[in-house]
Amino acid sequence: MCARYTLTAEEKELIKKQGYTLRGEYQPDPNIAITDVGFIVTSDEPDIVQRMHFGIVPPDADSKKVDFSSFNIRSEEVLEKPTFEPLLRQRKTCLVLADGFYETEKLGEDKRPWRFVTERKIFAFAGMWSEWIDENGEPYRTYAIFTCKANKTVGEIHDKGRMPVILHKIDEKKWLNKKISLDELLSLCEPYPDNKMNRYRVSKKALAVSTKAKPNKGMDLLEEVKDEPRQENLFGLEEPKTIPQENKAPAKKKQPKNKRPLPPTGNLFD
């Protein structure tokens, strides 16, 4: 499941380094939620980054009001869903550009949001898109994100055991290729490797709904908050041995209060 994700890279990182042309204005967003604008590369225009709204509106819908069950596509069931099956057969595939996503851990009545990142600064979810035409002939484009069984890094947090499909860089062009078979296309919907991902706790402010009257788009949503010991074993490694009290390293000096820590997304894998 993926209901909220992030794209906070600078425009030059998003466009020039990836070799795309941008259509429309770009604005970094640390909290892209259902109905918000995301940045998409389609199989029809594989060199263009364009703006679309999160949550599929089918071409034959009565209005552009989004059904909140249409923002994620279970890859195992896509051919059984009347909303999604025609779009897939028409090869309306797309790349959903991102640099992280959120999932919420439920512990009794408590909810703790986490942000997940990969070894790449910018990556792409496997997505599908649709175009709805209004009464004036104006197009309204929307998209949804494919999901698959979760890897350990995400599955330890997500109570449904699901995660968004993150494509390997070498598979992004294949996902947009209209000539490959559906079986080959759907074979790309696999859990991303644990050793190429990381996670960290973020503030519960990330759970708040963003509205025009009260936007929830501050970059402080990316900042790490105090975590639990379970964070030490993200990659399926052997559990670390207990360190005797007298051998523990001295506590690090506190940072000056006027320095705000940066989100730990830059050098996680160095």
UniProtKB/TrEMBL annotation:
It holds the Pfam family SRAP. It comes from the Bacteria. GO terms for biological process: protein-DNA covalent cross-linking repair; proteolysis. Residues 218-270 are annotated as: Disordered. GO terms for molecular function: lyase activity; peptidase activity; single-stranded DNA binding. It is an enzyme of class 3 (hydrolase). Its EC number is 3.4.-.-. Residues 250-260 have a biased composition (Basic residues). Keywords: Covalent protein-DNA linkage, DNA damage, DNA-binding, Hydrolase, Lyase, Protease. Gene3D superfamilies: SOS response associated peptidase-like. Belongs to the SOS response-associated peptidase family. This is Abasic site processing protein. The lineage of its organism: Bacteria, Pseudomonadati, Bacteroidota, Sphingobacteriia, Sphingobacteriales.
